[in-house]
TrEMBL record:
<dbReference type="InterPro" id="IPR025824">
    <property type="entry name" value="OB-fold_nuc-bd_dom"/>
</dbReference>
<feature type="region of interest" description="Disordered">
    <location>
        <begin position="502"/>
        <end position="524"/>
    </location>
</feature>
<dbReference type="InterPro" id="IPR020579">
    <property type="entry name" value="Exonuc_VII_lsu_C"/>
</dbReference>
<comment type="function">
    <text>Bidirectionally degrades single-stranded DNA into large acid-insoluble oligonucleotides, which are then degraded further into small acid-soluble oligonucleotides.</text>
</comment>
<keyword id="KW-0378">Hydrolase</keyword>
<keyword id="KW-0540">Nuclease</keyword>
<keyword id="KW-0269">Exonuclease</keyword>
<keyword id="KW-0963">Cytoplasm</keyword>
<dbReference type="Pfam" id="PF02601">
    <property type="entry name" value="Exonuc_VII_L"/>
</dbReference>
<feature type="domain" description="Exonuclease VII large subunit C-terminal">
    <location>
        <begin position="133"/>
        <end position="499"/>
    </location>
</feature>
<protein>
    <recommendedName>
        <fullName>Exodeoxyribonuclease 7 large subunit</fullName>
        <ecNumber>3.1.11.6</ecNumber>
    </recommendedName>
</protein>
<comment type="subunit">
    <text>Heterooligomer composed of large and small subunits.</text>
</comment>
<feature type="domain" description="OB-fold nucleic acid binding">
    <location>
        <begin position="17"/>
        <end position="109"/>
    </location>
</feature>
<comment type="similarity">
    <text>Belongs to the XseA family.</text>
</comment>
<dbReference type="InterPro" id="IPR003753">
    <property type="entry name" value="Exonuc_VII_L"/>
</dbReference>
<dbReference type="Pfam" id="PF13742">
    <property type="entry name" value="tRNA_anti_2"/>
</dbReference>
Length: 524
């Protein structure tokens, strides 16, 4: 037999326990030692299931104890625990063998003051609110139809699935997911970085810039949601230029990001409903508006048509409106021929009077009178210049005695001035001599132009173009009835006049018993 034996020594007399036996033994020890205890702590996560029982946590800065109040005990409580309250719970300790955990069965709860976490949270909220991070005036409106939605949440939880499912049902759009930790020490820096990262995206860049952001997380205790109460997250949400929806926790959970966000949603699903409208409802609304527009247009056209018909019945008939103007037109048409003939006669008389006044003798007399007038004006001008010259000589003599040194200079200047005036007078005299001849030439040209106009407008030129003037009994005939009544007709052409037969020619019989047309009718 070896002195050193490596064979394991079998256990001694230590008993072997089953798991249930050991759990039962621990349960009996704990219940025996802590049959009735009073525990002071802050209420953490509170759960109220449909069974009526109450589940909550009691905690301090280092430890957490699970606490339970059964339905009958909850009904007897005068003060029911709420998250954040500091309470004194009275009950007994026990274990839950199914999960290897111990818990406190609470029979009564008494308030002990505000909890430390809630006090710190309230202090931080008041400080941030004083900075204006929660002001309602800084809230941005949500876009009605966002093209891109950015979601800041955990990619593996049920929250993102609920959001995507609700967006797909209501209005499918492009969704960008920024994965972050939603619990623990990494939660706050990652959420703040995600919000600032979405805001740093450029519009029109390779990664589309979201039109709205959703920060989402499921429910949990105050400790689980504490990352969304951190100052870095609140400041990032308040500085976001993209509208932000906070969907952290359930409806009863409130975090500081809810105050800084532009909108707060009670649940992540509600955040998706806030972000987009229902596409089918929009289509139905568009269809309804289109139908209303069509009905409004049809009704407007019908009302205006009826109004037009009513107004048309009040208007007079077209024949009534045109009767008086038509009568005035007929009257004016009947007077037009006579008026034109009278106007031509007046114009011809005026031209003849002007031609008589514009004869060569008249123009020569006018030129002679103008020449005599110019001669008289020239003589008067010479006399006036002489008188002025004598006056100037008298003044020069008067000033000569006083201005002897300057006499020669003044005489020279006066002589120069007189010379210049004489030159001007000579130029005027030359122009006066030429003016009658030029005036006579202009009047002769005007007379020739008027004579050409007279000849052009005279009826003689009209006769040269193939027309003729018919006279009956010495008067101009302008109608067939007047020609038939005339005793004798005379036709004037450009090269002479032709006399036609008398009244017997109008009634010459035709072969076959008819009446032969007048001889002169065949000439027109």
């Amino acid at each position: 037999m070896d002195l050193l034996d490596d064979t394991p020594t079998p256990p001694g007399n230590s008993p072997e326990y089953t798991v249930s036996e050991l759990s039962g033994a621990v349960k009996r020890v704990i219940e025996g030692e802590f049959g009735l205890v009073r525990v002071r702590g802050e209420v953490g996560r509170v759960s109220r299931p449909a069974s009526g029982h109450l589940y909550f946590d009691l905690k301090d800065d280092r430890s957490v104890i699970a606490a339970i109040s059964w339905k009958g005990q909850v009904a007897k409580m005068q003060v029911r625990p709420d998250e954040g309250m500091e309470v004194i719970a009275t009950g007994r300790m026990t274990t839950f063998p199914g999960q290897s955990k111990y818990q406190l069965i609470v029979e009564d709860v008494a308030p002990a003051g505000a909890g430390a976490l809630m006090a710190m949270l309230e202090k931080r909220r008041a400080a941030l609110q004083a900075e204006g991070l929660f002001d309602a005036a800084a809230k941005q409106p949500l876009p009605y139809l966002p093209r891109v939605i950015g979601v800041v949440t955990s990619p593996s939880g049920a929250v993102i699935r609920d959001i995507l499912h609700r967006l797909r049902d209501r209005f499918p759009c492009h969704v960008l997911i920024w994965p972050v930790a939603v619990q623990g020490k990494d939660c706050a820096p990652q959420v703040a970085a995600a919000i600032r990262g979405f805001n740093a995206l450029e519009a029109g860049g390779p990664v589309p810039r979201p039109d709205v952001l959703i920060v989402a997380r499921g429910g949990g205790s105050l400790e689980d949601l504490w990352g969304f109460n951190e100052e870095i997250v609140v400041r990032a949400a308040a500085e976001s230029r993209i509208p932000l929806i906070s969907a952290v926790g359930h409806e009863t959970d409130t975090t500081l990001i809810d105050h800084a966000a532009d909108r707060r949603a009670p649940t992540p699903t509600a955040a998706a409903e806030m972000a987009v409208p229902v596409r089918l409802e929009l289509l139905a609304a568009v269809d309804a508006l289109g139908a209303r527009l069509s009905r409004a247009l049809a009704q407007g056209v019908a009302l205006r048509g009826q109004r037009l018909r009513d107004l048309a019945r009040a208007l007079p008939r077209l024949e009534t409106l045109l009767a008086t103007p038509s009568q005035r037109l007929d009257t004016a048409t009947g007077r037009l021929a006579g008026g034109l003939s009278l106007a031509v006669s007046r114009k011809r008389g005026g031209y003849e009077r002007q031609a008589g006044r514009l004869s060569a003798t008249t123009l020569a007399g006018l030129v002679a009178r103008r020449r005599e007038a110019l001669a008289r004006r020239a003589e008067a001008l010479d006399a006036r210049l002489a008188r002025r010259r004598d006056l100037w000589h008298g003044q020069f003599d008067k000033w000569a005695s006083r201005l002897a040194p300057s006499l020669a200079r003044l005489v020279t200047q006066a002589g120069v001035k007189i010379t210049e005036q004489r030159k001007g007078l000579h130029a005027v005299s030359v122009r006066l001599d030429k003016a009658p001849a030029q005036r006579l030439t202009d009047l002769a040209r005007r007379l020739e132009a008027l004579d050409r106009t007279r000849q052009t407008l005279g009826y003689a030129q009209t006769l040269r173009r193939g027309y003729a003037v018919v006279r009956g009994d010495g008067e101009v005939v302008t109608s067939r009835a007047a020609a038939e009544k005339a005793q004798a007709l005379e036709v004037e052409f450009h090269d002479g006049r032709l006399a036609l037969g008398g009244p017997a020619a109008k009634a010459a019989p035709r072969k076959g018993g008819g009446t032969k047309p007048p001889t002169q009718g065949s000439l027109f």
